[in-house]
Amino acid sequence: MWIQFAPLNIPLSRRLQTAAVFQWTFSFLAMAHCCLILYIVLAFSRYWLFALLYGIWLYVDWNTPSKGGRRSEWVRSWTVWKYFADYFPMKLVRTAPLDPSYNYILGFHPHGVLVVGAFGNFCTEGTGFSSLFPGLTPHLLMLPAWFRVPFFRDYIMSGSLVSSDKASACHLLSKKDGGQAVVIAVGGPPEALDAKPGQLTLQLLKRTGFIKLALTHGAHLVPVLSFGENDLYYQVSNPPGSLLRTMQERLQSIIGLAIPLFHGRGVFQYSFGLLPHRRPVYTVVGSSIPVKKTPSPTTEDIISLHALYVKKLQDLFETHKAHYGIPEECQLVLC
User: Fold this and answer.
1) Which residue spans traverse the membrane (predicted)?
2) Which residues pair with 263 in a beta bridge?
3) Digit-coded pLDDT (tens) for 251-274
4) Measured between alpha carbons, how far is 307 from 313 in angstroms, rounded to an integer?
5) Could you tell me which of 74, 69, 183, 86 has the C-alpha nearest to residue 126?
6) Which of 124, 196, 295, 309 fits a 20 to 30 Å CA distance from 152?
7) So what's the pLDDT on residue 52?
8) What CATH number is given to the structural domain containing 143?
């Protein structure tokens, strides 16, 4: 296979964009492991007192990821995130205003390989979330295990990431003043195994937990479709029933994480690597679905609201797919 190298005369702005995406890729794939190793090294060095003090802080601060986290507007507004968004480019599209007097659950689809669109749009100001939705505070839910890693937990919380356990979402959606936007990648890690260019397969038909959560708290539902999310990486073929897919699903059931075998591009060449490809990502935020607070929703309540949500999501796809390069014959596959 021939390797396609990047030309030498690339403008500085594009090099900065690549650097921004490189640091994000490192953060997503390797920073947690590096932070854990660093803490262990500190604990067994002459700096053990620092590790001890941080350990005490970790114990005291243990529940913060489930209590709204500790966001930093300074971190969210770093210039690096603007370069990050411009790399693809990534754009956040508002189809209707969202009243900040209500709380919302934003269902993000698809998960993609690394949830790039959800991070870029809701954990940073790279695409201007606060300007498009004034008065709303976004929180992206992430698996609780990542908030147990020393140092790393503090970094991801600064960007509006919070724990995905039930107590975390309930804490945010219980705020009576409204203005909380809880972003849930509905398909979760299993959906990453279907993230392939030209395909849009969503794990949704059996996902009703977020519907019950919305009913319990009276949080309005908002479908979000990220066009181009699945085009950022190539993945090794793993059709349902294949040996690879069976192993991936078995591993996912054990550790709670899906392990897609994927590749993108490198820093100085375009043929292989872990950086996402430069392909447009348009994250379209639909209009809200009003939800009446129902502290003890029945099965019928959940099924009815779930059906309405699915219909709104399908309508959002059909309305906007032609604008963002999706062939007319392409269909949304729900499973």
Assistant:
1) 21-41
2) 234
3) 888 887 778 999 999 999 999 999
4) 10
5) 86
6) 196
7) 97
8) 3.40.1130
169: containing domain = 12-334
Tokens 């447009």 belong to which residue?
280
Q: The pTM is what?
A: 0.95
> In the structure, how many helices (H) and strands (E) does the chain have?
13, 11
Instruction: Identify the three-state secondary structure at position 232.
Output: coil
272-316 pLDDT, tens per residue? Answer: 999 999 999 999 999 999 999 999 999 999 999 999 999 999 999
Number of Cβ atoms within 10 Å of the Cβ of 330: 14
Report if residue 124 sits inside a domain. yes
Tokens describing residue 274: 């872990």
Helix 166-173 vs helix 209-217: crossing angle, to nearest 10:
30
List, for residues 119-154, the tens digit of each pLDDT value.
Answer: 999 999 999 999 999 999 999 999 999 999 999 999
* Structural domains in the chain (count): 1
Kind of pairing, strands 281-285 and 220-227? antiparallel
Element (DSSP H or E) covering residue 79: helix 79-87
112-133 residues labelled b (16+ CB within 10 A) or e (exposed): bbbbbbbbbbbbbbbbebeeeb
Render 255-322 in DSSP notation, one character per residue. HS-----EE-B-SSBSSSSSBPPS--EEEEE---B-----SS--HHHHHHHHHHHHHHHHHHHHHHGG
